[in-house]
Design brief:
With 446 residues, the chain is α/β, with parallel strands linked by helices. It has helices at residues 8-11, 15-21, 32-36, 53-63, 76-84, 99-103, 120-129, 144-156, 175-183, 217-221, 248-251, 253-263, 345-348, 358-364, 373-383, 391-410, 427-430, and strands spanning 45-49, 67-72, 94-96, 110-113, 133-136, 162-164, 190-196, 275-277, 281-282, 287-288, 291-292, 303-309, 315-319, 325-330, 334-337, 342-343, 413-417, 422-424. The protein is globular.
């Protein structure tokens, strides 16, 4: 076997042993082209749970690194489409409507979880318990409590790789460059960050409809409250209902708040904002005590400017107004970055000409080779170590995202103790820390 070939037996060796040998192992390019010519027996087996619009794209990406031998979706149309997709199941993958059937299979080493947000943690924890490596789309969690649950699971099952689909973390030309510049102090002392994430769409009232024959609505709802089926509650539109997601606070916030939190070194356990002011937030339906009073319309915030304050004096404005992207304001300059550009005087004058090296990028990659997002995932499966977008840093950003949503729902300022991880001095706000799942859909506690 050459240095560019890895058998499944080698692939499945304990990550601790592989990590120990990593320094002596020649560099291996965990790339789709490299994997494309491998025999089926030399590639990891993958199960894709959730193969709707985003799930299809992720499944295609995973198929470049391994064999997708199982696809699962509560919508049989989605599952059958993925089975027969010439870049995913290729007509051969087994089809399931219940994710537990995928996790039961001992021949599946990797699972991709691309379900609605409210299902992420339950499936991810059970996948870790089943010994799988896990890729899960963002936002990883729905509540503050779920952040703690998945972090506990990741600590216990630390031999398995876990990557969150926040692909901006592997954008070396824009987002990673901005993070490096802030962390190296090239902008001076940061005083304010504006995180533009746009507002949620408005819509409704939506009519109750018959559940399509190809959809298991009860399973789609999972731990969420049992309600009548409305087409706009399901599939892509789930994002605009607090029952299943956090609106733009978690949809785009999982990307931009994550980058901002990483840049200012507030991504470790015990860190985070100490106050979150949601006074300036509007919703498309009436609210009472943080709960929507209508159940037939989108209910996540469509217009907001939530102000998060950190103990070190930094203010982070999470807003629907202005450009989508992140604006850092420091004592030496301002820097704006989004998916389309990175701009400002530091870029025009090339301040980081000698301050953004391959060594800097490797540091940000936690010592790994800088490469694509899923490439990093499969490298960590082989070599061990934390992925670029790991559970521990991600949940710190998600704490902030969930807190902004809670403050916005209540329309007031709330206080957070980042070390104790609790909302203080506001019993009503503290009730949003967790939610009670429907019977039969409880989350495993590790």
């Amino acid at each position: 076997m050459t240095q560019h070939q890895t058998s499944r037996r080698d692939f499945l060796k304990s990550t601790s042993a592989l990590a120990a040998a990593a320094t002596a192992t020649p560099y291996f390019a965990w790339s789709q082209p490299a994997f494309a010519n491998y025999s089926a027996n030399d590639r990891p087996n993958i199960g894709c749970i959730g193969v709707g619009s985003m799930g299809t794209g992720d499944a295609r990406g995973h198929a470049g690194f391994g064999n997708v031998i199982a696809v699962c979706d509560v919508d049989s149309n989605h599952a059958n489409r993925a089975k027969n997709h010439d870049q995913i199941g290729k007509g051969k993958a087994d089809v399931y409507g219940d994710y537990r059937k995928v996790l039961e299979r001992e021949d599946i080493e990797v699972v991709s979880v691309v379900t609605p947000d409210h299902w992420h943690i339950k499936i991810a924890i059970e996948a870790l318990e089943a010994g799988k490596h896990v890729f899960c789309q963002k936002p990883l969690t729905l509540t503050l409590e779920e952040n703690q649950l998945i972090r506990n699971a990741a600590k216990k099952y630390n031999k398995q790789a876990f990557l969150i689909g926040t692909q901006q973390r592997s954008d070396r030309n824009k987002f990673m460059r901005a993070v490096n510049m802030v962390q190296k102090g090239l902008l001076g002392d940061i005083s304010k960050i504006t995180v533009g994430i746009n507002g949620s769409p408005t819509g409704g009232p939506f009519e109750v409809a018959d559940v399509p024959e190809h959809l298991d609505w009860n399973m789609w709802l999972g731990q969420a409250p049992k309600v009548d089926y409305r087409e706009k509650r399901c599939h892509y539109q789930f994002r605009w209902w607090y029952e299943y997601s956090g609106g733009k606070f978690t949809d785009w916030g999982a990307h931009h708040v994550d980058i901002a939190t990483w840049a200012i070194n507030q991504h470790e356990e015990g860190q985070g904002p100490v106050s979150i002011d949601g006074t300036d937030a509007k919703h498309p339906v009436p609210y009472e005590n943080g709960w929507a009073t209508k159940d037939d319309s989108y209910n996540t915030s469509n217009d907001f400017n939530v102000i998060c304050k950190y103990e070190n004096g930094i203010e982070m404005h999470v807003t629907s107004r202005g450009d989508n992207g992140i604006l850092f304001e420091g004592s030496k300059g301002r820097l704006f970055v989004n998916r389309g550009k990175i701009s400002g005087t530091p870029i025009e004058e090339n301040w980081d000409k000698d301050e953004y090296t391959i060594e800097d990028q490797t540091r940000l990659y936690k010592g790994k080779q800088p490469e694509g997002h899923k490439n990093n995932f499969y490298r960590c499966i082989q070599e061990g170590g934390l992925t670029l977008s790991d559970v521990f840093s991600h949940v710190q950003a998600m704490n902030t995202c969930h807190l902004t949503a809670i403050a916005a729902r209540l329309g007031r300022k709330i206080n957070w103790d980042p070390k104790k991880e609790e909302i203080t001095g506001d019993s009503e706000a503290a009730e949003f820390f967790a939610r009670t799942p429907r019977e039969g859909f409880e989350i495993h506690r590790v």
